[in-house]
Amino acid sequence: MAAAPEPVDPAPARAEPHDDANWWREAVVYQVYVRSFADANGDGIGDLAGVRARLPYLRDLGVDALWFSPWYPSPMADTGYDISDYRSIDPAFGTLEEAEQLIAEARALGIRTIIDIVPNHVSDQHPWFREALDSPPGSPERERFWFRPGAGAEGELPPNGWQSIFGGCAWTRTEDAAGAPGEWYLHLFAPEQPDLNWTHPDVWAEHEDILRFWFERGVAGVRIDSAGLLVKDPQLAEETAESGPGEHPFTDRDDVHEIYRQWRAIADGYAEPRILVGEIWLPDAERFARYLRPDELHIAFNFDFLACPWEPDRMRNSIESALAAHAPVDAPTTWVLSNHDVTRPVTRYGRADTSFAFESKRAGTPTDLERGHRRARAAALLAMALPGSMYVYQGEELGLPEVEDIPFDRRQDPMWLRSGGVDPGRDGCRVPIPWAGDRPPYGFSEAGADRPWLDPPENWAPLTVAAQSETATSMLSLYRAGLRLRRATPALGDGSLRWLPSADAVLSFARGDDFACIVNFGHEPIELPAGTDVLIASNDLEGGALPQDTTVWLRQANGEAPSWDGSTRPGLSKG
Ligand code: GLC
């Protein structure tokens, strides 16, 4: 029986976005990386006008909210995560007025807007940092950052041994106007991203004001960049191999929670409360969940799931431990397969090691894209069926692969630049979206436009939105159908799941009274429980059985008692 999705009507638009104050607990949030989404003015860089023109596409995809990676004025040393003005829009993207129009237009289509806030660091072109450089050591202007004299007889050594997350030393030495060396300043990322000092009241006040600025323009929430890194050990102690909970000198220090309590009070102060979404990479699930206490952030990205290999036991553990960690704080879990920092899923799942690691460890390893694609489809339906909210990164719904052969002189990511070319960096998942046509740039820009900031590959014609819209078996059709069904199925979204008995190579769980999701990781096709209707499957069934690397959603036929509860064990019982 062929169970690939039928051509589908687009998901019905919500007349109004979920009025429910808990919309975020089960929302599907689509990440827009503006630079690569759609270029309306032909300069090779995506822009807000491009997004506005494509809002119907996003409505039809069936997403509840958009999260925009930073759109502010920026020298783009880290493609926008180095902000020089938090209250405006980069001219390459458009204007503040356009952003306001975009927020309103999206909302009229039932789509909320979440923006990216970067509180750990600013651009080295931010007025505060320019003032600090122009002011002497010990001046109040320098106290908003981490300026320190160097170690060594002449101050020629960095103040401590902290390493930048992008590689190399986390300190850069300043020079005065005459070129004489001076103090060093801290940057956990690139030197163009000096870290703010969150013990300084100006830093608190400024961010509270920035939040209000955007909340008053209608944004529904903020995604908080590097949210666990803001507070540093004032003694600047060295990193040790084993630090206890909260003892690391710059990650997950206890005082950081006070910042988010303050932000939550601001977010809750609106008639329609705003939401706070944290980017927190922490292996310790209990420490992670602390950020989600009722008076702190609403939700945070589930990176454990994102990084999890495509293996049934690891997947089950990841899902179980995420649900268990979130339960005590009554926060919903997020399900994330990709973002602008990580390898595209069809590539990752096609490698021998399917866990996520930065490309320095994986690039160039043999990749079976067909297998990766099949698994990415299965993972998408799995993620859509799990309790909580889902985050979709642009291009994931098209099954775009990681672009691994970007010429060296075109790469832009500071991870590539700072590693001296050792780490290929993250440009491979940031290539412009292919919309239509047979050749690059596939409608990203109109004909005659400037070359895109990264070139889409020559073989992407079958991956365009236009091509995939014509094909019932495409990744785009699967996402549209899956999101439509998710929205139409009350058991999905927020809530709980019940694991069902199954073979080791199978994940099987029920949601509500009459919905089940089964994922087969094993070689052997498995029979489906009797008396069930297939709602959707990520690939064709084989003679009614669920083949390897395939997910199926089932509904109990005729409203009978579910047959999957114990009476069958997918993968063990036949027929
Ligand atoms: C976050 C962003 C990443 C950026 C970094 C520094 O991890 O997702 O893209 O480079 O923070 O702001």
Overview of this structure, please?
The chain is of the alpha/beta class and 575 residues long. The protein folds into three domains: 370 residues, Glycosidases (TIM Barrel), CATH 3.20.20; 60 residues, Oligo-1,6-glucosidase, domain 2, CATH 3.90.400; 79 residues, Immunoglobulin-like (Sandwich), CATH 2.60.40.1180. 24% of the residues lie in helices and 13% in strands. Strand 13 and strand 14 form a beta hairpin. Helix 5 runs parallel beside helix 6 and helix 12 packs parallel to helix 15. The chain is globular. The N terminus is likely disordered. Bound molecules: alpha-D-glucopyranose. Alpha-D-glucopyranose binds next to loops.
Question: Topology of this structure?
Answer:
Blueprint (H helix, E strand, L loop, with lengths): L27 E5 L15 H6 L1 H7 L3 E4 L27 H13 L3 E6 L9 H7 L13 E2 L22 E5 L5 E6 L14 H15 L5 E4 L31 H13 L6 E4 L6 H6 L8 E2 L2 H5 L4 H15 L7 E3 L8 H4 L10 H4 L6 H17 L3 E5 L20 H5 L46 H5 L5 H14 L9 E2 L6 E6 L3 E6 L5 E2 L4 E6 L7 E2 L3 E7 L19
Parallel strand pairs: 1-2, 1-11, 2-3, 3-7, 7-8, 8-9, 10-11
Antiparallel strand pairs: 4-6, 5-6, 12-13, 13-14, 14-18, 15-17, 16-18
This protein binds alpha-D-glucopyranose (GLC).
Alpha-D-glucopyranose binds next to loops.
Oligomerization state: single chain
Q: Which ligands are bound?
A: alpha-D-glucopyranose
Q: Whole-number radius of gyration?
A: 24 Å
- Helix/strand structural class: alpha/beta
Question: What share of residues is helical?
Answer: 10-25%
Major sheet, described briefly?
8 strands, parallel
How many discrete domains? 3
The end-to-end span amounts to 15 Å
- CATH superfamily (homologous) name of the largest domain: Glycosidases
Q: Approximately how much beta-strand content do the residues carry?
A: 5-15%
CATH topology of the largest domain: TIM Barrel
Provide a count of the helices.
Answer: 15
Mean pLDDT across all amino acids: 93
Low-pLDDT windows of residues? 1-16
- Count of β-strands: 18
CATH class of the largest domain: Alpha Beta
- The coarse overall form would be globular
